[in-house]
Amino acid sequence: MNTQEILCRKKELLEKQNYHFEDLVLIVELLRSEGGCPWDMEQTHKSIRNDFIEETYEVIEAIDTEDPKLMREELGDVLLQVVFHAQIETEEGRCNIDDVANDICKKLIHRHPHVFADVQVSNSTEVLSNWEKIKGVEKQRITLTDKLNAIPPMYPALIRAQKVGKKASFFDFENIEDVYAKLYEEIDEVKDASATKTKAEVEEELGDLLLTVTSLARKLGVNSEEALFKATNKFIDRFSKVEKEVIKQGKNVENMSMTELDAVWDSIKGQKNVEI
User: Fold this and answer.
1) What is the CA radius of gyration of the chain?
2) pTM for this prediction
3) pLDDT (tens digit, 9 = 90+) per residue, 227-276?
4) How far apart are CA 190 and CA 213, in angstroms?
5) What is the largest CA-CA distance in the chain?
6) Which long-range contacts (C-beta less than 8 Å, at least 24 apart) are formed by 6-11?
7) 116-136: per-residue pLDDT in tens?
8) Which end of the chain is less congested by CB atoms within 10 angstroms, N or C?
9) Cα separations (Å) of 59 from 70, 92, 154, 163?
10) DSSP notation for the chain
11) Would you put residue 273 in left (φ > 0), alpha (ψ -120 to 50) or beta?
12) Separation of alpha carbons 73 and 272, rounded Å
């Protein structure tokens, strides 16, 4: 856009009361155009990479807290990230936001032949099975190793481990008792490594233990990432109760022994109307 076009577009935006998706695309273009925002103009895909991650987690917070107002706001922030990255691609002449929309529309149509073609399915399990088969053909993932390597390594480790285990489930423990046996074996190996081996060897054994835990979670039908998330929240909640009680006693938790803190926790558990 030339200078006159930019001024005209800004004026049009300022006169609006309500905005649409096309306006967001235009605003991002203006922010990165001549006379735009110095910060926005400096950004690259890599410089705002972590922003995308953070905004995604903030949407997850809105989902978990069931906050519709926050959901609306955070979805907007994620949408901004999508448009921003698409604008950078537009400037590089590789694609634009319409290309992005075109590709995802084609993908959705192609991967839902039970909706847009004559494939018959009877349940969601068959839908997911068809999706994986179609995806494998699209991405030319022939071997199972191809499919395992396609799971993004930047996923949170627990999510990645459980996804890898699910895809390679035939190369897995036959029953849950075998998982428990392996779990105890890995605990013993961590103990042995921590007593006689290097930090790298301890790390390796601890990694094996954590991987086995994700196998156990899968066998039990539990999402290991969510389980750890909830356990961490529970720990914080319990610690908060202990600290409040300690403060009432005029003490500091950091100056108390574990035995003393356990005694405080036991006293809290004995109180009525206290959720444990």
Assistant:
1) 26
2) 0.72
3) 999 999 999 998 898 999 899 989 898 998 999 988 888 888 777 565 65
4) 14
5) 74
6) 6/30, 6/33, 6/34, 6/35
7) 999 999 999 999 999 988 988
8) C
9) 8, 29, 19, 22
10) --HHHHHHHHHHHHH-SS--HHHHHHHHHHHTSTTS-HHHHH--TTTTHHHHHHHHHHHHHHHHHT-HHHHHHHHHHHHHHHHHHHHHHHHTTS--HHHHHHHHHHHHHHT-HHHHSS---SSHHHHHHHHHHHHHHHTT--SHHHHHHTS-TTS-HHHHHHHHHHHTTTSS-SSHHHHHHHHHHHHHHHHHHHHHS-HHHHHHHHHHHHHHHHHHHHHTT--HHHHHHHHHHHHHHHHHHHHHHHHHTT--GGGS-HHHHHHHHHHHHTSTT---
11) left
12) 40
Nearest to residue 87, comparing CAs of 96, 79, 78?
A: 96
260 token code pair: 């003393």
Amino acid (1-letter code) at residue 127: V
Q: What tokens appear for 268 in the block?
A: 């809290």
Burial readout 14-29 (b: 16 or more C-beta within 10 A, e: otherwise): eeeeeeeeeebbbbbb
